[in-house]
User: Fold this.
Amino acid sequence: MPTEEKSQADQLRDALTRRQKHACEVLSEDEIAQADAFCEGYKAFLNACKTERECADRFIARAEALGFAAYEEGKLYAPGSKIYLDNRGKSAIFAVLGRQSLEKGLRLAAAHIDAPRLDLKPNPLYEDKNLALAKTHYYGGIKKYQWAAIPLALHGVVCKKDGTTVQITIGENPGEPRFCVTDLLPHLGRDQAERKLSEGVKGEELNIVIGSRPLMLGGKAEGLKLNVLKFLNDAYGIVEEDFVSAELEAVPAFEACDIGLDHGLIGAYGHDDRVCAYPCMEALFQCAAPEYTAVVALADKEEIGSVGNTGLNANFLYDFVTGLSLTQGVNPRKVLRNTKCLSADVNAGFDPTWPGVMDPLNAGYIGQGVVLTKYTGSRGKSGSSDASAEFLAWVRSALDGAGVLWQAGELGKVDEGGGGTVALYLAKLNLDVVDLGVPILSMHAPFELAAKTDVAMLRNACAAFFAAE
Assistant:
């Protein structure tokens, strides 16, 4: 039987409207299998890298194995050169030099590698009623109650007065102890239940149980805190004063895993924003001889406003571009003015359990590809860079030309709240920038969800971006 011709309305509908499709509708079985395989590497990365320092170290080690060399200021690099800049061990820049002069601009992707967590205070240790505890100060925007009654691991560095640095990771390997913040039992939680949800567990109640047995000397109990300090001194050679010059982070102790009977989702700590950093870097590692210089900047401190000398509100990216430009005799301001940039950060995936906060016409959906976000900010676009229509058209063309599945979305309804990314700090450099990233469920929780096909699609999007004219 011959196929019926489409009606005039159907033809118009095909020509004029856009139906967002699920990845499974447009990808072959082999492509889905490739996405799943790509995400096995991503899960291994998440398990190994739970702090910004660990992320930077791992990317640098992988880059060096692939022929990247530490950046030397003042050196003239030939096309195809692979270089990196390590900024204080907590942020980094990676670049593959292109055939075109830097004057033509860069293809820059920027992501952040910090994540919400609990930081130990400078004077954290105390004991009370047969428990040794550590005081914390939460980092980033969290729902504090989500961090109680879950297993935690301790990661970080302790810099001693003699100049030596000790790396600490406790709670990730079999047989190692873990830690936790306690919560009140429901039988005695009547007053707690009357609190606002945001104060169900207060900041000063995020105290980590770190020990429960006193140090016994000559049959006499000498204190729980002293026992903890003795363990730390025996294992790492540190004393209590060393906590002042330490960066110790309590992070969820569970591993990344598949979610759902179809294995379509990854559940893990730290998707925001390592789910963008990893695909960006994997795309850069595939760049052999790009037309334009391809750069990935991995930043710290985004979750607290991109502050400090390792956040993108600092000058380390500008200084790097300036140094490269001067060796080619090019004005760095012109390089930045001609640069095209992706602020690679996550967006909120539409959650059918909580639909009231989202505009369903302008939301990112799990499994429907990367989310292109013209502006972030809150309410009246406060704190947003708001990308230009011209640049968005260029990005659309690049993504469509490479068959990348993408969708447009905002971060919730206009008056519900909002959030920001590093885009406004990049725009400050007078370059074109737009947010592009993976939709996430349970963002900023200790356990977030992302679709495997979306993660792999971001790698494809970054590769298309680096290659686009």
Notes: The chain has two domains: 18-115+269-467, 117-252.
